[in-house]
Design goal:
- The protein is of the alpha/beta class.
- Helix content is 43%, strand content 15%.
- The protein has two domains: 272 residues, 3-Layer(aba) Sandwich (Rossmann fold), CATH 3.40.50.2000; 177 residues, Glycogen Phosphorylase B (Rossmann fold, 3-Layer(aba) Sandwich).
- It is built from 17 helices and 17 strands.
- The protein has a seven-stranded parallel beta sheet with strand order 4-2-1-5-6-9-10. A six-stranded parallel beta sheet has the order 14-13-12-15-16-17, with helices on both faces.
- It is globular.
- This is Putative UDP-glucuronosyl/UDP-glucosyltransferase.
């Protein structure tokens, strides 16, 4: 019987924070683990499982649910983020314990729990069951390092110095740091989430990061001195990178209904590199003022464009604007990777969320950086000044990027020699990112190492 148990395939339980931007990379990593021969179950909250739509999920990943304490509405049903996180900790711990008992009784027991860093309480539950634990960091390692310094008290807050020097990072201005640090005291609930994600990191067996070594070598090397860190990204569907996971051309879960067919059909008759693609992600919200500036910046630049405006944001579009478009298409959502892969797309106007950044980088699309808050600020700094694949829209005294600046950025990428340099750099990073997840690449090696280490530890256990 003991020999039979040891020969069973190791089983990983994946627990993301229940938003699109966290589920997508962890689901994608799950597919990589399946490819390497592991069994995977992904845990969603009851509330988010009611919202997310499963499409094209050709995988043997199993799904389970736990409760965040707000089964009808999730975060939107909570009084504030602080209430949500505390209730999720309490109720999530109870229901995760129940789930682990259920899986054990059904001979479907778990060997390793891989949890989103935003949910550090998972470690306590997993350790009660004597399970191996890996924490999954969904942000860039440059951002993780900055937030870790804040957590450890190695970064004096509020910031007094204009220039910040941290190991493994280039010199940064205070304004380059994540907004919760630069504007210390704003959104304390989110500040706590971003710093407390490291509260249990010294008790886990592995630290997994959605990046690749070649993109952030200096800071990764520094973090590896203090964590058992493995870079395993970019966590993007395989058919857009190494193509080793058959039919993996989509994450498989969406909170919105994408208008993919209409987008691709619209792009098909546009000249190569002629289209500006604009999207601010699944959660970011723009002011009416900023929305208007984007609208007329796009219209006035004279270029073809696709602009993703979520249903909840459509009322901010200037009245009558949509009816006057000759070169633009406005959609509520689309399959972004398919758009990036289309040869007609010439640049991407982005909020610099980490998933969107990795997607554009992996598909070789230069960017116009218009960050809004949190890690987007730091991502923009690296996109523009370190990886050199973007220009940045400069905001005015109100923080609004005006239409003239947007027009200038579009022209700089689409029409100038600097734009050609950015495009060449983007293609370079596309090739490097693909190589990292292909057989023998840096991320592929790390995933293989993780799987082998888990199998070895499990046998010893």
């Amino acid at each position: 019987m003991e020999k039979e148990i040891k020969n069973q395939i190791p089983h990983c339980l994946i627990i993301p924070y229940p938003t699109q931007g966290h589920i997508n990379p962890m689901l994608q990593f799950s597919k990589r683990l399946l490819q390497k021969g592991l069994k995977v179950t992904l845990v969603n909250t009851i509330s988010s499982s009611k919202t997310f739509k499963t499409i094209n999920l050709n995988t043997s990943i199993e799904f389970e649910t736990i409760s965040d304490g707000f089964d009808d509405g999730g975060l939107t049903a909570a009084k504030n983020i602080e209430t949500y996180i505390e209730t999720f900790r309490r109720t999530g711990s109870q229901t995760l314990t129940q789930l682990l008992h259920k899986l054990t009784k059904s001979n479907n027991s778990i060997d390793c729990v891989i949890h989103d860093a935003f949910l550090p309480w998972v470690v306590d539950v997993a350790k009660e069951f004597e399970l191996y634990v890996a924490v999954f960091l969904t942000q860039a390692c440059c951002v993780n390092s900055i937030n870790f310094h804040a957590f450890k008290g190695w970064l004096d807050l509020p910031l007094l110095e204009k220039e910040i020097v941290l190991p493994g990072l280039p010199k940064l201005e205070a304004a380059d740091l994540p907004s919760f640090l630069y504007k210390y005291g704003t959104h304390p609930g989110y500040f706590d989430i971003l710093t407390n994600q490291f509260s249990m990191i010294d008790q886990v067996d592995w630290v997994l990061a959605n990046t690749f070594y070649e993109l952030e070598p200096e800071v990764v090397d520094w973090l590896k001195k203090i964590w058992s860190l493995k870079t395993i990204g970019p966590c993007v569907p395989s058919m857009f990178l190494d193509r080793r996971i058959q039919d993996d051309n989509d994450y498989g879960i969406n909170i919105f209904n994408p208008n993919s067919e209409s987008c691709i059909k619209w792009l098909d008759d546009k000249p190569k590199g002629s289209v500006v693609y604009v999207s601010f992600g699944s959660r970011s919200s723009l002011s009416e003022d900023q929305t208007e500036e984007i609208a007329y910046g796009l219209k006035n630049c004279g270029r073809f464009f696709i602009w993703v405006v979520r249903e909840s944001e459509k009322s901010k579009i200037p009245k009558g604007f949509s009816e006057t478009l000759e070169k633009g298409l406005i959609v509520t959502w689309c399959q972004q990777l398919e758009v990036f892969a289309h040869e007609a797309v010439g640049c991407f106007v982005t909020h610099c969320g980490w998933n969107s950044t990795l997607e554009a980088l992996s598909l070789g699309v230069p960017m116009i950086a218009m960050p809004i808050w949190t890690d987007q600020i730091t991502n923009a700094k690296f996109i523009v000044d370190v990886w050199k694949i973007a220009v940045k829209g400069v905001g005015d005294e109100k923080g609004v990027v005006r239409r003239e600046s947007i027009e200038d950025c579009i022209r700089e990428i689409m029409e100038t020699e600097k734009g050609n340099e950015l495009k060449n750099n983007a293609i370079k990073w596309k090739n490097v990112s693909k190589k990292s997840v292909d057989e023998g690449g840096s991320s592929d090696k790390n995933i293989v190492e993780f799987v082998n280490e888990l199998m070895l530890r499990r046998k010893k256990f």
